[in-house]
Amino acid sequence: MKHARLTIIDRYIIRKFLGTFLFSIALIIVITVVFDFSEKIDNFLENKAPFRGVIFDYYLNFIPYFIVLFSSLFTFISVIYFTSRMAYRTEIIAILSSGMSFRRLLVPYFISATVIAVASFLLSDYVIPDANSVRLEFEEHYVHTSPVRFTQRNIHRQIEPGIFVYMESYSTMSDIGHKFSIEKMENGQLVSKLISDYIKWDSTKNKWVIRNYYIRDINGFRETIKTGSSIDTVLSIHPDDFKRRDNFTETMSTRELTDFIKRQRMRGESNVVIYQIEKQKRYAYPLSTLILTLIGVSVSSRKVKGGIGMQIGIGLLVAFSYILFMQFSAQFAIAGSLQPALAIWLPNIIYTGIALYLLRMAPK
Fold this sequence. Notes:
alpha+beta, 2 domains, 6-stranded antiparallel sheet, 9 helices, elongated
């Protein structure tokens, strides 16, 4: 029970760890907000963004997103900085000489890292989705004023179990899909198929209008054909499904993202890997806080000739190599060379091995 209790040294390290982390993240947030404001001020003025909206709708919701995005990196930098200072002042040597083992020294580090990791995960799941909804909506009105306009080609989706739609192309500018068809399957057999020249969204009726169509209804060996110039219908797709920006998943909680991935799989979407990567990152990034903390302590706890600067330089090299590795592995997943889960967790697996090796080499 004696060893389970927090000592003065534990509280000292926890205070140093969390204090350095909060100071460094606050400093970089201020710098980032200043640069972001200087970049977007023309858009704010041109689109007459309200000052209250800029502060409370945009930047106040921007801050938690930024904290979570870079929490593991600044955790690592914080560990490197204050631990190397402790080593330079021979505090680490004094602690180890007092009888505390290096593994016991890691306890307050992991307590602090766990606090940051849990806070990061809870923020990303419960706070940031709502904050991002407000922030991105503000951006749509006052930053990205031009609507999303592009044409998708060869769209094939399962919108409901057994119901498939196909469009040769779809224009988000006119909300028209050309060469449209819809098939209904039962027990693996085609029972109905509609083919038309094009389909258009009617915003007044909130329905799709199908033009110049014919329908084949198949019942065993019997087949009937219906034709017409126009018919209204309700489908489980909406024009907004084609106009989403790449970052719209940032407004979803993990549960909502999981349900969304299931729907996209059911529809046969080809870009579902991107959403799977986003989901895996929400679990992998908080855990990386613990891994990078172990690496940071192992690297910076030894007093070296190059001083604090050398240790900080080595630490930054390791941190940025981790981020670079994460980006590379994610691209391999998008290209289909790796499974999304493996691609995102592979850097954590490899750097866990590096952390354990550095732990063996750390001063005892």
